[in-house]
Sequence to fold (320 residues):
Amino acid sequence: MLYAQSIIKQETATLPEISRFYAYVSITFFDTYEINENMEASLVAVRKVINTLYPKYQQITDNVIQVFSKTLLPLQINGKEGDTLDGILKWLNSDRPLSIPSEATVNKVGWENIPMNKLDSPTAGTWKHWILKDNINLDFMDQPAEKNGRYDEELKNLKNSIKILTQLQKNTSLFWLDNKAVVGIWQDRLYDEVDNSKMSEIQFAKMQKNLALALADTVIEIWKVKYIYWSPPLRYTNSELANNSFMSTSPRFVSEFAAVGAVASEFLASNLPDQKEVFIQDSKDARDSGKWGGVFLDSDNQSGYVLGQKIANEILPKLN
Fold:
């Protein structure tokens, strides 16, 4: 997963693509490893999936994957592991291309005719779920501030709050707005906690897979909401608020940091209950990071958090 994140740091992939990539890497490793706990076979499978999605890094990927093996890796695998890999590749190919670039412009108020290929793709809402059987019913959702007359007041409050941020709040914001994307940071949080535990390789692999699949499904639902309301990013309408390195290219409402954090923290707390309070605080920091960074209004964060909790209630029981 760390190598997968290093690729993402060099790419301009969208959050749906990133979450999908991490899901494929983690599901490939676990589903092949649990058969016979054959590390070499799993490494070959992961190598194939990464090279399929990011072929331009093939030489680097081959070298990096080889380092993890005690023996020279074969070019391909057979048997049950090979059949499992074939099934994953079939699913992967039905997803491709993960987003379809287009030169069409977006004629939405506040978007200034942004080329479509500069935006995160709204097609995520049409991708196949990993865990959820049905789309989330969004009738419970509030509307963005522009729709209910709260925008000016929330924007004023945001500007005032940014002026009095503590150094801790600034650092926290920069941490969560890292370009590994929020789904990658939550994988890091899992690794940090498991690294200090007595969890076996296969137990960790299963948890990593389930977290990745849960977050990939979560992003599909988040993107559906974003492209229903098309709330312009604050950086286009109020450029003075873009005071950090995070540059949003998706509709502002709802916050992906808040929604993903709600799901990830619930998942991790249920699997690592001794650290429950830590994960809950992490989710609150992730939620508020966008506000502290000047890229999300408070209602974007709060609605995102509520959406994430709703998704968690649907997803987590299916992972037990």
